[in-house]
Amino acid sequence: MGEKKGVLIVVSGFSGAGKGTLMKCLTEKYENYALSISATTRSPRPGEEEGREYFFRTTEEFEKMIAEDQLIEYARYVNNYYGTPKQYVLECLEKGKDVLLEIEIQGALKVKEKYPDALLLFVTPPDAGELKKRLVSRGTETAEVIASRLMRASEEAQGMDCYDYLVINDDLQACVEEVHRIIRSEHCRMGRNREFVVRIQSELEMNK
Ligand code: 5GP
């Protein structure tokens, strides 16, 4: 059987839901994942590195990427642009890697429109109080930015129904396993295995 294409996975969730840590653990624990690195116009947080967390770009550079059709999707989030570079994602999928996009909801919906096969996961903490606690204790954002992110979370909650799966991030390791299981099951979906189905059908036909 020929090499199968990977699954495109979109992971969204409120800011502070722990998506970043979840993605990191998943890619460290299992080999078959590739994590897409987005471009953004926001400034690096302390400890963030160019090309590791994001490709940090000026607004002008970002708009050039849009004009040159280098992005699968992009969106504005709390006064900055964020977008997914196309080339890396498509190359990894071709090689059979499962590609993780950690993006917000507008981008997620655009991805689903372009790639209906994409698997959309929504990650949330167990309750809103926990979300606020995590955002505050991260200590990397001003009170004003935290307030905007909480407001945005409330808007995003309205779109949760568009996602295929809900993942509650209470215990990190349990959450990593759950996401991994969901993705493994996606590989078994009949529609993703057309080549196999056609082959075995014709083999059985010949045996008649
Ligand atoms: P942060 O500034 O906390 O790193 O990210 C803010 C939001 O932007 C998060 O919800 C994150 O998932 C989202 N985001 C990161 N990269 C992209 C991207 O390439 N496209 C879109 N649409 N959203 C992104």
Q: Which features would summarize this protein structure in a list?
A:
Rossmann fold, alpha/beta, 9 strands, four-stranded mixed sheet, 8 helices, Guanylate Kinase phosphate binding domain, globular, 208 residues, five-stranded parallel sheet, binds guanosine-5'-monophosphate
Q: Could you explain the architecture of this structure?
A:
The structure is a single chain. With 208 residues, the chain is α/β, with parallel strands linked by helices. It has two domains: 143 residues, Rossmann fold (3-Layer(aba) Sandwich), CATH 3.40.50; 59 residues, Guanylate Kinase phosphate binding domain (2-Layer Sandwich). The protein is built from eight helices and nine strands. The strands form two sheets. Strands 2-7-1-8-9 form a five-stranded parallel beta sheet, with helices on both faces. A four-stranded mixed beta sheet has the order 4-3-6-5. Helix 1 packs across helix 7. The chain is globular. The model has no long low-confidence stretch (mean pLDDT 93). Guanosine-5'-monophosphate (5GP) binds next to strand 5, strand 6 and helix 4.
